[in-house]
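Notes from the 1:1 (GR / supervisor)

We went over the backlog. Supervisor wanted to see one worked example end to end before approving the batch request, so GR pasted a single chain during the call. The sequence is below; no edits were made to it. Supervisor asked that the structure be written out right there so they could see what the output format looks like.
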Amino acid sequence: MRPDHAPHHPALHSGLQLQSPQVCAAAIRAFQNIANLWQLSVDEQLILLGNPARSTWFRWKKEPHTARLERDTLERISYILGIYKALQILLPDPAAADGWIKRPNHAPLFSGQSALQRMLSGNVADLFVVRQYLDAQRGG
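Structure output shown during the call:
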């Protein structure tokens, strides 16, 4: 495909590559903020990120600008950002929105488990289905 017919992607057209240091650092900071709001343990954070080494995660947190994230990790963070955003829209009370992922859910997708339990299976597909569920709930 010739460059003048490339699909539109804001990060690419702003001069940022998806795995650039700036994008990786922003992704790490955003994930860290959400993990704090959701009160996730370090082990939960590692699973959601695709199980990087514990020392790697602590280095990324301390120096986000040094993070070089794999495409899979960026995809996982993207789904988590989408889940966070959807919850903020669906549940305007921040405490309710942040607590939702840990509450038991009787929708068929969750079978009485919390969304976090579903997401902690370690599969990126489970992040996708939680995101898809929330997007459907808000009519998206």
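Supervisor's comment: Residues 16-137 form one domain.
Batch request approved.
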